[in-house]
Amino acid sequence: MSLVRPFEAADAEAVASLFQRMLRKLRAPAPAALTAYIRDFYLETPERGDGIASLVHVDDTGRISGFVGVHALPMILDGRPLRAAVCGSLMADGRDRDPMAGARLLKAFVDGPQDLSFSETANAVSARLWTRLRGVVLPQYSLDWVRVIRPAGFAIELAAGRAGPLRLLKPAAAAFDGLLRRSLKPGDRRWAVAREGEPAKAAHASEIDSAGFASLLELLSAQFALRPAWRDMPLERMLADAAARPDLGALVFSRVETPNGAVTGAFAYHARAGRIGRVLQVLARPGQAGAVMDSLVDDAARRGLCGLRGRTQPALLEAMLTRKLAFVPVASSVVHARDAGILHALKTQQAFLNGLAGENWSRLIGGRFD
């Protein structure tokens, strides 16, 4: 008879094989580095919550046929400490033999001791399972945003995702983009192009290290009723994991200040010249989101990126709508909570979620293990 039980160290190799085949879409055996990372990430981290654990599904032959990766996230709601659990990799193999394996895994997860269950990477199938278990989809947290900086380079970079040799056309694209950018007048911000290194009028960005960025998180998220308890999180390890994804480029941390030196925001993103930068986190004080976004785009243009891509937050959405961004539904942010106060904060966009308050910092998303 099939069962769901907590993930154990001896399960890591089988879970890595599932991850390699189902999520990485690779036929080669899972590398030892992936097995080790999965074991350490889900079992050896000091922030594991009491009773909050990753789960495996074992079929009636004793084979591990499913997995849900879980890590604890300490949070605060109006000063009250909460235990949140982030649902990462949800996998279920052999649907023809046991079509309910995924549903059993997810139900066992949301029935755990945590106050809040959350995922920012739910696909359409997973989102339906969440809603059947009385979970809630959060539309304004569920969009990816895209900003084009060099249009020809951006188009080639998108196409190269399927046909890598197309990057040989990069020099021609760079020449076209250079002509287009030189045609812009100062202050001109079009949908598909931004001037290189144009200074923001309301604020300017200066690069800082990961420790400096971590020190700003509490200050710049204080306006949210529901937010991470940053002091209780292993931020040094999380930011080191986020940085250990060389294919995405170097992880850049910046502080945004007004001309008189007041801190108005911060951002962290992966920057690699000629590529589309992946934004990990954008933070802004109330009323300053526009200036922070302008500083981010200017910084990316100066570093030679052809575009940016990140995850929305409702607090940034109004400023984003006036700044030549496109929005793409890629995955849903979904939550489950029994406390009405928690659900109210989530439904009224008073919560700080996604990025570091989620799972996109993990090496399991975009990392290399070869």
From TrEMBL:
<dbReference type="InterPro" id="IPR016181">
    <property type="entry name" value="Acyl_CoA_acyltransferase"/>
</dbReference>
<protein>
    <recommendedName>
        <fullName>GNAT family N-acetyltransferase</fullName>
    </recommendedName>
</protein>
